[in-house]
Design brief:
By secondary structure, the chain is mostly helical. It has a domain of about 210 residues. Helix content is about 80%, strand content about 0%. α2 packs across α5 and α4 runs antiparallel to α5. The two termini are about 30 Å apart.
Length: about 325
């Protein structure tokens, strides 16, 4: 029995327990907080979804340009949203890698090379969020005089991440380490296809190695897009009358985003809520306000997933 299919229930249970701990009065407080939201600020925050997705599409189109393929910003946004939907309903957002199927069918980019483009996209995001999370914990450790243990743990994770990034670029090392698993776990009928994709994957990496300008551009876009997301989150908090500064929000959101990737919840339900309750509690902000804010983040994801569902049907090749 594949118990991994039910891991998302952990997040649902955590969210249910959190609501149960609040009781009817707490749930009423959540509803009241949302009902009293400033509609103008809330609406402006929603519009930032367009800006965020535009940057995501721009980064994707830049990465594909390395293979000599031109994709319009609109089409790139549509494909990114479709991939976002697939990622939202899969453990660790792994379904996002199916974007490579679209790249192959519509632009002739080999599957392995397409996977390298998506992986680089994801590595930029995770790398930036880890760095931002470390900065955020340092910020909180100064304000609340915390023990720096958490920062050292994050630095350790960053070191592991950097080592993994370096390792994955070493074709011979990955081939050596992966050979036993390839022989034992991969069915014979898939071996040749995976072998070809493996070589294509490293051909894609080689292309990026020759075009550092594209990598630098993608890195800059990554930073800008996440900063806009942090500002959007701050606007949502402002609309809900939650007293947090932009600096505090920028310190919290990288951790929240990384927590969402842990494959024990659906779209971060439960894990995101508990993490926000913990952070906001340090600032003297109620659990009801923290959960209300968490729901606005969930709303962003639902809107993007709905557009992703529309474009997934439209493109039919993903």
């Amino acid at each position: 029995m594949h118990y991994s299919k039910y891991l998302f229930l952990i997040g649902i249970v955590l969210f249910a327990l959190l609501l149960w701990s609040l009781g009817p009065g707490g749930i009423s407080g959540i509803i009241e907080t949302i009902a009293k939201a400033n509609p103008w600020i809330f609406g402006i925050a929603l519009l930032f979804i367009i800006i965020d997705v535009s940057f995501k599409g721009l980064k994707q189109s830049a990465l594909l340009k390395a293979f000599g393929k031109k994709i319009s910003l609109v089409e790139s946004m549509e494909v990114w949203l479709a991939g976002y939907l697939l990622g939202a309903v899969s453990p660790g957002r792994s379904g996002d890698f199916l974007r490579s199927v679209y790249f192959k069918k519509n632009f002739g980019i080999k599957t392995g090379s397409g996977l390298s483009a998506v992986l680089i996209d994801r590595l930029f995001d995770v790398g930036f969020l880890l760095l931002a999370a470390i900065a955020g914990f340092l910020y909180f450790s100064v304000i609340f005089n915390w023990d720096r243990l958490v920062v050292f743990i994050l630095l350790g994770l960053l070191a592991v991440f950097a080592t993994g990034c370096i390792l994955i670029t070493r074709k011979k090392a990955v081939h050596f380490l992966g050979r036993p698993f390839f022989r034992l776990l991969v069915p014979k009928k898939f071996k040749e296809k995976i072998r070809v994709s493996f070589h294509d994957f490293y051909e894609g990496f080689a292309v990026y190695g020759k075009k550092p300008g594209i990598i630098v551009f993608a890195g800059i876009i990554t930073v800008i897009s996440w900063c806009f997301f942090f500002f959007q989150a701050w606007l949502f908090a402002l609309s809900l009358n939650i007293p947090v500064s932009f600096g505090i929000m920028a310190a919290i959101m990288p951790v929240i985003t990384l927590v969402e990737v842990i494959p024990v919840s659906f779209s971060g339900i439960g894990t995101r809520d508990i993490t926000l309750v913990g952070f906001f509690g340090l600032l003297g902000i109620s659990k009801e306000a923290a959960i209300s804010f968490s729901m606005t983040i969930l709303l962003i994801e639902i809107i993007q997933a709905l557009f992703g569902a529309f474009f997934l049907r439209k493109i039919k090749n993903l």
